[in-house]
């Protein structure tokens, strides 16, 4: 598959898909507290998506059994919501969410602290979020894709963090995952030239310790090999001639 350039109509729909996904995220953010299970968050989130007239795009994707990925502490991404996984004070939790609005996809992730968290955990969350913004300084027409990758990775690594290599961001549009792949660390090549109308899901996954990850036996959950905390931050963006439009984040 090659990189798709969205039409004006598709961009309008993707703006709406992004706006609605932000509503879903904000609704779930209100519910994060010690004692709630990741299953409950998933169910509430799915209900919210459907009430907004949308469809969860993660559900049944390659057999994925839930509508959200909700990853706690050393879980990097793709952890399946469960009754048995109860958030507790001091945890960090990443909620990865996506939906389809009139055929167009949106995808975004946030990491939150549960109650009071350690300064180290808060710093990891803050640097991961900031690395996204460092990256998208280069997300504009005329720049090369891997300038985004390098800016994300260099920033996160300057704090001694491990930048996950085994998972990447992606193009997004009529499908959840389109070309191109978007690594979060410096590449040898410059990558494709960015063009207005490209829509990208940029998603740094950053570990407090080493970059290495492993997959659990459920074939979904990705955890840090060294057991260190991991944070995730993602938005769907639109490439323009100037500053990128962040479709899943207003303000
Ligand atoms: N949001 C994830 C991504 O960016 C997708 C989760 S995988 C799924 O690639 F199976 F849950 F959909
Ligand atoms: Co994504």
Provide a short characterization of the protein structure.
This protein has 251 residues and is α+β, with helices and mostly antiparallel strands. Helices cover 27% and strands 25% of the residues. β7 (169-171) and β8 (178-182) form a beta hairpin.
Protein described:
It is a single chain. The protein has 251 residues and is an alpha+beta fold. It is built from 4 helices and 15 strands. A hairpin with a 6-residue loop joins strand 11 (213-215) and strand 12 (222-224). The longest helix is centred in the first third of the chain and has 22 residues, at 8-29. The mean pLDDT is 98. Residues 58, 61-62, 64, 69, 78, 96, 98, 107, 201, 203 line the site of 2-amino-4-trifluoromethylsulfanyl-butyric acid.
Spatial order of strands in the largest sheet: 8-7-9-14-15
| Largest sheet geometry | 5 strands, antiparallel
Helix content bin: 25-40%
How do the SSEs run, as a string of H and E? HHEEEEEHHEEEEEEEEEE
CATH topology: Creatine Amidinohydrolase
């Amino acid at each position: 598959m090659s990189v798709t350039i969205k039409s004006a109509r598709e961009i309008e729909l993707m703006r709406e898909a992004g706006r609605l996904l932000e509503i879903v995220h904000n609704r779930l953010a209100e519910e994060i507290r010690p004692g709630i299970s990741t299953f409950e968050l998933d169910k509430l989130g799915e209900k919210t998506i459907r009430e907004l007239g949308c469809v969860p795009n993660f559900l049944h994707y390659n057999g994925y059994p839930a509508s959200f990925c909700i990853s706690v502490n050393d879980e990097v991404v793709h952890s399946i919501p469960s009754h048995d996984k109860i958030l507790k004070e001091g945890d960090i939790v990443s909620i990865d969410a996506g939906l389809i609005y009139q055929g167009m996809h949106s995808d975004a992730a946030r990491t939150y602290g549960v109650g009071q968290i350690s300064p180290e955990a808060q710093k990891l969350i803050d640097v991961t979020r900031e690395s996204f913004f460092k990256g998208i300084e280069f997300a504009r027409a005329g720049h090369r894709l891997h300038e985004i990758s390098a800016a994300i990775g260099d920033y996160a690594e300057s704090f001694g963090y491990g930048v996950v290599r085994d998972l990447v961001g992606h193009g997004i549009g009529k499908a959840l995952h389109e070309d191109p792949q978007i690594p979060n660390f410096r590449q040898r090549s410059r990558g494709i030239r960015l063009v207005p109308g490209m829509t990208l899901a940029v998603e740094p996954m950053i570990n407090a310790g080493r970059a290495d990850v492993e997959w659990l036996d459920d074939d979904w959950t990705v955890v840090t090999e060294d057991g260190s905390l991991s944070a995730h931050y993602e938005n769907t963006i639109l490439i323009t001639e100037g500053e990128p439009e962040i479709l899943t984040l207003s303000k």
